[in-house]
Amino acid sequence: MRDNPNLSEEQIDRIRSVAQLRSVQAAEVLYEPSQPDAPLFIVLEGNVSISRTGEDDKILAVREANQFTGEMSVISGKRSLLKARVTGDGSVLELSRDKILSLMAKDTELGEIFMEALVARRLLMIQSGEGNVVLFGAKSSARTLALREFLTRNAHPFTYVDIDSDSFASELMEKLAVRNSEIPVVYCNNRYVLRNPSIAELAQCLDLNINTDKSVRDVVVLSAGPAGLAAAVYAASEGLCDSEEVIAVGGGNSAGQAAVFLAHSSVPVHLFVRSQKLSDSMSQYLIGRIEAHRRIEIHYRTRITGVGGAGHLEHVEWRDDALRETKSGPIRHVFAMAGAAPRTEMARRFPRVGQ
User: Fold this and answer.
1) What CA–CA distance (Å, rounded) separates 240 from 262?
2) Contact 30, 20 (CB under 8 A)
3) Domains in the chain, start-ordered, CATH in brackets?
4) Whole-Å CA distances, 112 to 75, 189, 251
5) What percent of the chain has pLDDT over 90?
6) Residues 69-124: pLDDT tens digits?
7) Quick one: pLDDT band at residue 207, thresholds 50, 70, 90?
8) In the β-sheet with 325-329, what is the strand arrangement from edge to edge?
């Protein structure tokens, strides 16, 4: 996926009719972080640097002649996360959000070029943590995990600082005058410090709903698939279970899919199934993938009988009814995908259950 393509002269000529030609000078700022509806600029002459704000004002990329600025906020209309500054006198073509959306809809070739680059740039920002959010938290904090999941689902780049394992965490927290007891703490837009914020408060600080209107919609999507699969995907992608043993409970497709996704980052994944076989409740394709996966261990006729920990899950006990044995282990993560009518009695034994 190309993040910095060069447009041909013929392609640029097709854009001129809907764009505004501008002369620019060195040091001129084209858009700032937190600016809504930042335009897209195509560089004709000169250079434009793309940087983050902060103590170092780090330059992340430079757009030269026949290249263009912007990332996914251009399409979504959300506030810009970066700064675009002219570093050499020249000229640019400026396209507003409405113009770029219209152009992409009418010109398939240009639409594909723009979309591929904008998506690739957002992915690079997510991978490198370049954005306007720093989240301080701990793996054992349910509120921290909820905020990480929210930011990840919204494809919003953020830097995560674990107060238990990151050596520089205390120094940063001291600068922001926050304490460990206040986590999760969010440093937002290089300006606001949010102590244990709600999802709504974080969304408001980031203006995630800035271009959301209240007009009638035919369809509103409130979910992206089985809850078990979603939890597994985001847990794996966020590094929640990195190199740790985990337990997935259930014999259906959601539990099976969760086990496969978790196996990408967890060693091993224990799949607890109450029945004697998976074929009664799971697709044959998924069964084949699970049985062939070297990181997944299937435990038939097995159920959790006890859990424990000081403040968060640290220990799990289970019963293998086939072998008539009770076992235990220092496992800190359990994913229960038990269907529409789950047996959740054992959850009452958790030291603390998050929402």
Assistant:
1) 10
2) no
3) 9-128 (2.60.120.10), 133-206 (3.40.30.10), 227-349 (3.50.50.60)
4) 13, 31, 41
5) 33
6) 998 888 888 888 889 999 989 999 999 999 998 898 888 889 889 988 988 888 88
7) confident
8) 302-308, 315-320, 325-329
Residue 93, token pair as written in the block:
């073509």
Q: Residue 156 is which amino acid?
A: H
Q: In whole angstroms, how far apart are CA 147 and each of 6, 153, 165, 174, 319?
A: 37, 10, 19, 22, 34
Listed residue (232, 229, 248, 228) closest to 240, CA to CA: 232
Q: What are the structure tokens assigned to 215, written together?
A: 């007009």
Place of tokens 């690739």: 120
Exposure b/e, 61-73, CB count within 10 A at least 16 = b: bebebebbbbbbb
Distances (CA, A) of 254 to 164, 199, 223: 32, 26, 14
160 forms beta bridges with 135
Do residues 203 and 209 touch, judged by C-beta distance below 8 A?
yes
β-partners of residue 55 are: none
- The CB density around residue 206, as the number of other CB atoms within 10 Å, is 24
Model's pTM, two decimal places? 0.56
Structure tokens at 100: 């770029």
Is 350's pLDDT higher than 70? no
Ranked by mean pLDDT, the top range of 12-16, 150-154, 351-355 is: 12-16
Give 68-89 as a DSSP string. B---THHHH-PPP-SEEEEEEE
